[in-house]
Amino acid sequence: MIGAHTQGFVAPGYERVATTFAENFERFGEVGAACCVYRDGKVVVDVSGGVTSPGGSQPYDRDTLQMVMSSTKGVVAIAAHMLAEEGNLDFDAPVVQYWPEFADAGKAAIPVRWLFSHRAGLPAIDRPLIIDDVYAWNPVAEALAAQRPLWEPNTAHGYHVGTYGWLAGEIIRRITGRSVGQFVAERIAGPLNLDLWIGLPESEESRVAPMIAPPPLPPGAQVDIFTARMFDPTTLLHKAFVNPPLPAPVFNDRAFHAAEIPAANGITNAQSLARMYAACIGAVDGVRLLEPETLAEATRQQSAGEDLVLGYETRFGTGFQLAFPFRPMAGEGSFGHYGMGGSVGFANAARGIAFGYVMNQMLPSGGVDPRTRGLVEAVVSSL
What we know:
alpha+beta, 3-stranded antiparallel β-sheet, globular, 12 strands
């Protein structure tokens, strides 16, 4: 035992990370969570704690699975850059080279890179969709192929909250003949022995901790910018969330977990997130996912400044979030992706670290999550 709520492994010198993790339960209402850190390809922190549901008795341990929302986008980015490294994907080629139907509505000249850097003007879909379309894949891909851009592509950037997954995933499917979930299983999860799925097998469902919605704001508290824009019908963020409609309880449905929704429904744990990112910056048990030259290109800044969808500053490479004020990771040189509610996976090659954090209790997404801010600060201070 490391603390009243937590257990796991902590290498000498990293005790502050474990202390901070335990304090999150007292200070920030953590229910169940896990955190894992790799340094130079080796585990230095692997802690977990709490319970899988409020008031429950089932321990939240290192093997508990959790949906990680948009942290899934980083997994998809790694998959795409693996294809680029092999010469099978050219980010500067037009999308229509791989997906001819995408030429509709004046999109024939859009290169693949703009899809991955949130510059394509396709953060929302006009054609009405239902949840069964999401589960089926093709109806959403077809709607995106027909969709007119909502701003002139490459003149600005705006976070493609849900559409990123179908846009990137369809490119991967057209190139490989496999779904993005199949590709991730075969090329990322399998070689690294990860508990990581986009499209969860039924055999693993009992291991998943349900997502817990953010607690209500206290009277008089100011709503964060993300939530305010999500409920404002004049914003692109609202438009992205209402079509297809995804009521919060659906996130805990078996059908949602089983589908491939590669912007949002990756299911994994902290150790697998950290191990995956560690294999992007070095070899982990003989496996390396991306070579240094590929990683340098993947993390070269493509978009920065005010985000037309989120309404605040964001910063992206090709598929990865880079460090910016609301998503700081471990500062400059970090790359990865946060998920709505608090999860995050990232690496920083200069510091030699890879970090994974998952949890069931979501917090508002419009600011810096105090749980991961404290954990990352503790990691950096331990180096």
